[in-house]
Structure formats: structure tokens, C-alpha cells
Design goal:
With 347 residues, this protein is an alpha/beta fold. The protein contains nine helices and 14 strands. It is 27% helix and 24% strand. It is globular and about 60 Å long.
Length: 347
């Protein structure tokens, strides 16, 4: 039997620093998704705090959203109650400043106009770092199946957030989920494996490659990307440059990795893409490879039927994973794999 699952994309623009109000909205949509038969509900990046780092209450809102893991725990309780998997967008977590982040504060900024320099915030008199974290919460148990700290920060984020560091830990690792698919023998069932990325990570195919090298079938990408806010350089070329990017990149990542890409964006154009099929339409509707991209800067929820057997068929055609697993693969040195503690290097 083909493994078919329903995925709910919950697209909304969170209010600045209104943590509890934003949570209440998210909870309402998750309950609606569960009643609609969804197996997985996905929220946008920064869904509790919004992205407003210059707001005088932003650090306090981040601290509120992560204090004692209270909001994460509330999502875990929802996953148990509703028997639904949840990726609660991202949560900005406040932690004591690590030695690594303190060191990076004193380093010279990268050649990006000074935006690469992190300025450590303080909270209650203590130096802190803010981590942009994504989690997969398992249905029924509420256990944390996987987590990820955003590594590729967008330039305006860099003065405020601490990025995940590939030199200190292995951020791009896949994990087992409660979702199941037929095993290699066709008789037993094995877990569908997932990976997490965040927003600007979309621009870096290396993260996707690392996840599928670790067996990821589905990659979930919460995002806070404003489609209509085009900078001056972009406007000189096209007022639709952000739209063009998002219309193409999810399908591209799905095809080149034979994986399901689940993109949930506060600014719109949320979508689920599969190889061979393109963007999937809302459940019960016929698709054309593009229908199913949600509106720009709209608030809505969409449930999508995902046939994971398509991934098997795509791999049979493209053999991407087979080539990557071979000893002679040209780009092996770029990947983490086989439990190794450092990036492979050319010999």
C-alpha cells in the first residue's frame, strides 16, 4: 500500500511580540488541521514573536517564548492530545552566551557591509545568545523526534541571532518520524525520515544534500520571507524577483533530491513539492504542477495529500541517492555521513 499522508500548511503573519496571541492562533489552526485528518501540521518561522529585532520588547518576547520550554511543551501536549505531528515553525530561544558566540562577537565582520558582526544581547544583566530553533514533535507521544538551529542566517539576522555552527556540531541530520513507508523488502514498514531547514537555507543546496545522504524523505522548511518587499537592486531587474525565486526553488530542491519539500512561509507562497509532480494541489483537487502555491501575504490553511511512493518512483528514474551512496561520487567530501565527526576531505 502506498504511504499517503496529509500535510497541513498553516500560513499567517504573526503579530509583533504578541507571543500568547500568536500561540492561540496557531493552536486553533492545528486543531482545525487535526479535525481535517492531517498527519503533520507546519507553522511559519518566527510564528510566536514575529521578526522585529529592533522592537524594545523583542528579546523579552524571545525569552517568554522559550522560558522553561513552556510553549514547546504546549505543542507537545497538543501532539499527544490530537495525535498529530507538529513542526511549530521556529521558536527564538534565549540561552546564556556560549564561548563560541562570545568569540565571534570580537571577530572582524565579514565583507558584507558590517552585517556579519553579531552584537550579543543582554537579558536580566546577562549576556545571551538567541537561537532560531525548529523541532519535529511526534504524534501521540509528543516526543521531540528532531531539532535544528538555523545555520544560514539572512544578513539582517546576523547582528541579532547566533547561527548553528557546523564546526561545533552536525546540524544537518535526518531523523525517524512516526510516519511509515514500505521497507526495502516490500513486506515490512520502516519510518519515513525527515530533516529540518529554515528559510534562507533554501538558497544552499548543500544542506539538502546532507539530509538526503542521511536518508531524509521529507524536508520541512519554516520561513519568514516577504515576497513583496523587494530591495532597490532587485527592483532594477524585476519587482517579482522574490516570487520568481520561491516559485522555482522548492520544486528544484524536490527534483534534485528525490524528496518531499514542505515550505511554510509567513509571507505567503507556502507549498509542498514532489519530484515528478511539482507543487501539489489542495487535497481533493487536480494539480498542474503549480496549483497549490498559497497566496502572497494571506492568512490561510491548506491540507495537501502527499503520496510518498512518488519518491520511490523518482529515485528509480533519477538514481540520485544511489549515485551519492557510491564510493566514487565526486562530491563526497562535502557531506556528513556514516556517523563521522567531521566533513570528509579529499585525499
Amino acid at each position: 500500500m502506498a504511504p499517503n499522508y496529509k500535510i497541513s500548511l498553516i500560513q499567517f503573519q504573526p503579530k509583533d511580540v504578541a507571543v500568547e496571541e500568536n500561540f492561540q492562533k496557531a493552536e486553533s489552526y492545528i486543531r482545525k488541521a487535526a479535525s481535517g485528518g492531517a498527519h503533520l501540521a507546519v507553522l511559519p518561522e518566527y510564528h510566536l514573536t514575529s521578526w522585529c529585532p529592533e522592537h524594545p520588547s523583542f528579546v523579552a518576547a524571545c525569552a517568554e517564548s522559550s522560558a522553561d520550554n513552556s510553549y514547546l511543551s504546549r505543542y507537545q501536549a497538543l501532539a499527544r492530545e490530537l495525535n498529530i505531528n507538529i513542526v511549530p515553525g521556529t521558536i527564538c530561544e534565549v540561552h546564556p552566551a556560549s564561548s563560541a558566540s562570545s568569540k565571534s562577537e570580537g571577530e572582524k565582520p565579514s565583507d558584507d557591509g558590517g552585517n556579519g558582526k553579531q552584537e550579543l544581547a543582554t537579558w536580566k544583566g546577562q549576556s545571551i545568545e538567541i537561537r532560531n530553533m525548529a523541532y519535529w514533535i511526534s504524534a501521540s507521544t509528543g516526543d521531540l523526534a528532531g531539532s535544528y538551529q538555523k545555520m544560514n542566517l539572512w544578513h539582517p539576522e546576523r547582528p541579532h541571532l547566533t547561527a548553528g555552527d557546523i564546526k561545533r556540531h552536525k546540524p544537518h541530520r535526518a531523523f525517524d518520524t512516526p510516519l511509515l513507508k514500505p521497507g526495502p523488502d516490500g513486506k515490512t514498514q520502516v519510518p519515513i525520515r525527515a530533516g529540518l531547514l529554515i528559510c534562507w537555507d533554501l538558497a544552499f543546496p548543500e544542506g539538502f544534500r546532507a539530509l538526503i545522504a542521511d536518508g531524509a524523505d521529507i524536508i520541512v522548511v519554516p520561513s519568514y520571507w516577504w515576497v513583496t518587499k523587494v530591495d532597490e537592486n532587485g527592483r532594477k531587474v524585476s519587482r517579482d524577483d522574490e516570487k520568481i525565486f520561491l516559485e522555482s526553488v522548492c520544486v528544484t530542491r524536490a527534483c534534485e533530491n528525490t524528496a518531499a519539500i514542505v515550505y511554510c512561509n509567513a509571507g505567503g507562497m507556502s507549498q509542498v513539492a514532489l519530484p515528478l509532480k511539482g507543487v501539489l494541489p489542495p487535497a481533493g483537487e487536480e494539480g498542474d504542477g503549480k496549483k497549490g502555491i498559497m497566496g502572497v501575504e494571506t492568512e490561510e490553511m491548506q491540507i495537501v495529500d502527499v503520496d510518498f511512493d512518488v519518491l520511490r518512483k523518482a529515485e528509480e528514474d533519477y538514481k540520485v541517492r544511489m549515485d551519492m551512496s557510491g564510493k566514487g561520487w565526486h562530491y563526497e567530501y562535502t557531506l556528513w555521513r556514516d556517523g563521522e565527526g567531521e566533513v570528509k576531505k579529499e585525499e
